[in-house]
Amino acid sequence: MDAPFSSSFSAARWASAAAGPGGGGGASFAPFHAEAPVGKAARAGSASGAASSASHENEGHFSVVIRIRPPLQRELESPAWHHAVAVQQGHAQVTLQEIVPEPSAADRACGSAQVVNHHTFAFDHVFDQGSSQPEVYEGTARESVASVLQGYNATVLAYGPTGTGKTYTMEGCRLIGPGSDARGIIPRSMEDVFQHIRQCRDPRRRFLVRASYLQIYNEVISDLLKPDRTNLMIREDKRRGIFIDGLSEWLCRSPAEVQTLMGHGSAARATAQTNANDVSSRSHAVFMVVVEQSEAGTAGESELAAGPADHGAWQAVRVGRLNLVDLAGSERPRLTGATGQRLEETKKINQSLSALGNVISALTERRARQHIPYRDSKLTRLLEDSLGGNCRTTMMAMVSPAAESFAESLCTLKFAHRAKAIRNSPRLNEDVDHRTMLRRYETEVRRLRAELKESQDVRESQLQLLQQHEVYEVCDDAGFAEEQERARAEQELRLSDMESQRCSLEEDKAQVARYKQLLLKQREIMIALTQRLQERDEAILALQAEVDIRDRNLAELRWQAQQVPTGAGASRGVAGLCAPLAPAQ
Predict the structure, then answer these.
(1) Does the pLDDT value for residue 568 go beyond 90?
(2) Are 67 and 165 a contacting pair, CB within 8 Å?
(3) Are 276 and 331 in contact (CB under 8 A)?
(4) For residue range 170-191, what is the model confidence (pLDDT) as tens digits?
């Protein structure tokens, strides 16, 4: 798991997980009734939850947000520290600066650097480094929790490089009380779920909350709440959809029980220390919550009017599933210093994240693919509904503000920006009997009849108003003909102007063609002249070479003549030497 924003927190471990959870995989899950609300505050909370749920109906049902963690102490103390991330446009746009150090050693010692490029991305929301845990939860997961309570599937996905605060965002600090602001998305989600159950005033409605916790370590799925269950398989059927065969489910009756389960599961999760993080997640963790709500009753007098077949009890069951995913961070071994087993873990992590990227690329291509590679990894197979399926998904991408993490931050922002184009199709997960369906159909028919009667009344009133204020106008034939003649003249004038412009364009094209031919001829002439000049230069060089050879021979002969002794012998020698030169003279 990623360390929180304070690097000293990585040494803190929650060791108080001695008390076991309240249920196990083989326990019988008895539903419990909702309690009455305690006052006005409870009703106000319910109204705010409904408003958040209504605002979640965004296009595609796939939102992407960015969270920028605060700088670490070691980053601030580094001489190369520079803040490279800026939030703009009302927390809807983020700009990443590419900063390079100065070439001079003196400038680098002063901490100066150059900004060579800017990369700007737009998202649904961008949380800067000053954003608190409650603000992040309100802007990301509260709507998902409200959707689950209505009977939809929802997923909150934390993605980013190692050491950017994914686990802190999802879980928060462990050694804190239940009312602390450092709580993460998972405990806050469970508090909202049980608060909604307590505020429900309908005595016919019953709730059942189950939780599971798993990890994917080196492409092997294991149960974090029952560590002896490993190498679990992913199954799929028409009724349950995609599920993990053999994964334990635990009945939860309060947020405290969920926190206990989280403590047991987090203690069993695979972690290790790297150069980038004191407590680094070596596996992907998925905390799954299933909220079942059933509504039962008997047919009233209004429903009995349809006939005796409607008499009896009815029941409707809605099932909402919430997946809270804490992905292991992408790593570069040269930065994290991973070797041996850590290096093998890094390979598996990067392999599964690469498969996730391939699925997102296939889902966001302009030309739809026939095959989406969900089965390339256990992670993408498990998140198949969350990526383009029956789910409302929120992806949170975490980045570091430090310039030294520019490459990782840029890859994360590009990945998240590509994921924005995913389109999901959430459906209400509801199982009802025939009496309930008949009751709902009757209610819908009554509503449609009321709307039809209202529309008929409005139409009659509009017709009466039109009859009262109807005005008949007689068009003047002469004026109409004159208007037509003027329009015809304007049309002919425009046509003549267009024809003149066309002729002018044709002449310009012909002139351009003539200029082109002339330039081609000039080019051919220049090429021929160039060839003749080259031939002349070659002939001159050849003649110059012959002259140089003769000059050298003449110089050698003169030098030999100077070396012959004086006297008769010299005369004969000179005569003998000069005899061959006579033809040359």
Answers:
(1) no
(2) yes
(3) yes
(4) 998 866 666 678 889 999 999 9
